[in-house]
Amino acid sequence: MILIKKFDYFSQYTTPWHQHTAGQLYQIKRGVIAVETEKAQWSVTAGTLGWFPPGNRHRAVAIGAVEGISFYLDLDDCNLFPSSEGIYGADPFVLNLLDRTARRHDPDDSKEYKSSLMTLLGREIMRSPKLALNLPLPDDRRARNVADALLKNPECSWDQEQLALKWGLSSRHLSRLFRQQTGLSFSQWRQQAKIIASLPWVLAGQLISEIAERSGYRNVSAYIEAFKKRFGQTPGQFQINRRITTSSPK
Questions:
Q1: Rounded Cα–Cα distance for residues 203 and 211 (Å)
Q2: SS3 of 173, please?
Q3: Domain of 227: which CATH number?
Q4: What share of the chain is helix, strand, coil (3-state, %, to 5)?
Q5: What is the CATH number for 55?
Q6: Which residues are CB-contacts of 103 (< 8 A; sequence separation ≥ 6)?
Q7: With b meaning 16 or more CB within 10 Å and e meaning fewer, what string describes 37-54?
Q8: Would you call 91 helix, strand, or coil by DSSP?
Q9: Residues 72 and 178 in one domain
Q10: What single Pfam family name could you report for this chain, choosing any that match (predicted)?
Q11: Per-residue pLDDT tens digits for 201-243
């Protein structure tokens, strides 16, 4: 372990693009943080952990007010963790282990003790489910500009043709780029971006009808169906599961 850093970001706070020689593990206490790499956007919520190995160029964007902790791991510790970035489910045991790690980051702790904590934490994360909280991003600069604009403003009312024209593309070319570089059609990608962008509202307990409207869905049923297709559970179940996961055992 190299460093433990707490953060408390206001909505839309964005870090510069950067990379570390250390691995970075995000634990979110409140809100949602979107970590954008060269290839994808990863959404870290309460009850999940975001892992990014050393040398992974990225930036972080606060989706609403967000509070959490970053654990920076040295190369030896990183060998205990997954070799690629990802979002992992965190049960109460893992969250308690992280809390203990944060509290016990003391210069007087023995090297063996710190090593034991990292070994156990790495093993638990390797066994944790990898969650579908990532959204692939296109490589083409113009298509990426479209993606960035929609990620920044998922409520944008512009249609595909308008977005393509703004960034010097035809609607057909934009569709082809998204299909080739993300594996999704433009409409599929945009729908998933809206669903992921709605997570802070879901976790905050807002009415599903209001969330559906803000996300651009004509009715609640369509929103719930799209959410369930993406995450395998309804918005209500997702909220309950995150609440259960982050609750410490008595």
A1: 11
A2: helix
A3: 1.10.10.60
A4: 45, 25, 30
A5: 2.60.120.810
A6: none
A7: beebbbbbbbbbbbbbbe
A8: coil
A9: no
A10: HTH_18
A11: 998 899 999 999 988 888 999 999 999 999 889 999 988 877 6
Task: Answer left, alpha or beta for residue 249, where phi above 0 means left and psi between -120 and 50 means alpha.
Answer: beta
Whether residue 180 is found in the same domain as residue 211: yes
* Per-residue pLDDT at 244 exceeds 60: no
Is the pLDDT at 99 greater than 70? The verdict is yes
> Considering its fold, how many domains does the chain have in total?
2
Residue 10, burial from CB neighbour count under 10 angstroms (0-12, 13-18, 19+): exposed
Residues 161 and 96 in one domain: no
Specify whether the CB–CB gap between 73 and 81 falls below 8 A. Answer: yes
**Residue whose pair of structure tokens reads 């024209």 in the numeric block:** 165
> What range does the domain containing 161 cover?
137-245
85 and 58 in a single domain? The answer is yes
User: How many residues does this entry show for the chain?
Assistant: 250
Element (H or E) spanning 62, and its range?
A: strand 58-73
pLDDT tens for residues 52-94? 999 999 999 998 899 999 999 999 899 999 999 999 999 889 9
Q: Are 65 and 219 in contact (CB under 8 A)?
A: no
